[in-house]
Specification:
globular; A middle domain of Talin 1; 76% helix; 15 helices; mainly alpha
């Protein structure tokens, strides 16, 4: 269906799907903030799990569709490239928040924990690549391990928030996570959840359309699947994270902003499990190119810088941007340059 369409029509579909993702993602932030207050789970956990999963749905569909079509590089690089792009978006949000370094103001142990969990999850595909090729029913054991560790990490994140063994030092710029009682009483929780689910469904359909357009463009113009996945579909499907992060910062929901990015990135590692299940020609980890793993290591480096910044908690940086944010943006810029020029 898509393969016979002219370039103008393909780009029109791509742009329309991107707009759907953008508008739905914007609306999800407000709903997630209200649900965090209504359920009592807090902004960091709701941002990391519910909002992170919701804004990642379109990217999930892109990776699954690509894997089912036998496009291992596109499926893998879409998820991993999204992690790098979304981490860069958090650094952009730091430049918008003028009062202090965002990682300082949004101090929350659950976010630090999820950042460390993300580094562990990103290391597992490297282990799969370097180990002998093994597949059970076409799925590598690491894909199952990713799912198990993610599920355990969600439970542990909630325990860390409820009964923290470490607590950040509060300063004049620390923004606590305090429920808005007035907001909580305005809408029924069931309506909030139903609206949330409906927006997620729209984003999923848009993600399917983006995957199909990307596949046609890759074949028709001989583009690198890694390049298309990491810098085209990944960035577009990550737009909700940029919008929701900036919107959350503007609302003062700082833990939601940071948690949404880190939690979304953690959820995005499950793209690999889904892609491995959809890819039917063996283990997806051994069907990849060097460029795919280049973006995996880039994501690990950017995440490590973010976690270190959360622990160091620099209050103010030059030009109102934290050193960790400057480092994250620098690494991302260099990665794009290397991908575009040398790979």
């Amino acid at each position: 269906m898509f393969s016979s369409l002219p370039l103008a029509a393909l780009m029109g579909i791509f742009a329309a799907a991107a707009l759907v993702i953008l508008l739905c993602g914007t609306r999800l932030t407000n709903l997630a903030d209200r649900l965090a207050d209504r359920t009592g789970f807090g902004e960091a956990l709701v941002g990391g799990v519910l909002l992170g999963a919701a804004t990642s749905l379109s990217g999930t569909i892109v990776s699954l569709t690509a894997a089912l079509d036998g496009r291992a590089s596109l499926a893998f690089s879409n998820g991993i490239g999204g992690i790098a792009a979304q981490t860069a978006f958090l650094a952009v949000a730091d430049t918008v928040y003028r009062r202090a370094n965002l990682e300082h103001a949004a101090a929350e142990l659950a976010n630090v924990f999820q950042g460390a969990l993300l580094m562990l999850l990103l290391a597992l595909p490297v282990a799969a690549f370097t180990a002998p090729e093994v597949a059970i029913a076409g799925i590598h054991p690491v894909s199952i391990l990713l799912l198990a560790i993610y599920a355990g990490g969600v439970v542990a994140s909630n325990r860390v928030r409820q009964e923290p063994m470490w607590k950040p030092v509060n300063t004049g710029e620390t923004s606590p996570d305090e429920p808005d009682e007035e907001e909580e009483s305005r809408r029924n929780t069931v309506i909030l959840l139903a609206t949330f689910a409906g927006l997620m469904l729209l984003m999923g359909v848009a993600g399917w359309a983006i995957a199909k357009v990307a596949s046609v463009l890759t074949d028709r113009y001989g583009l690198s699947a890694s390049l298309v996945g990491a810098l085209m579909t990944a960035v577009v499907t990550s737009l909700p994270e940029l919008v929701t992060t900036l919107a959350a910062v503007r609302r003062g929901a700082l833990q939601l902003a940071v948690g949404g990015i880190i939690g979304g990135n953690t959820f995005d590692t499950l793209f690999l499990t889904i892609s491995d299940a959809g890819y039917r020609d063996g283990s997806i980890y051994h069907a990849l190119q060097k460029a795919d793993y280049f973006w995996l290591t880039t994501g690990m480096i950017m995440t490590a810088i973010l976690v270190l910044g959360q622990l160091y908690r620099q209050k103010e940086g030059p030009a109102n941007i934290g050193l960790e944010s400057a480092g994250i943006l620098g690494v991302y810029a260099v990665a794009i340059l290397v991908q575009g020029v040398f790979m």
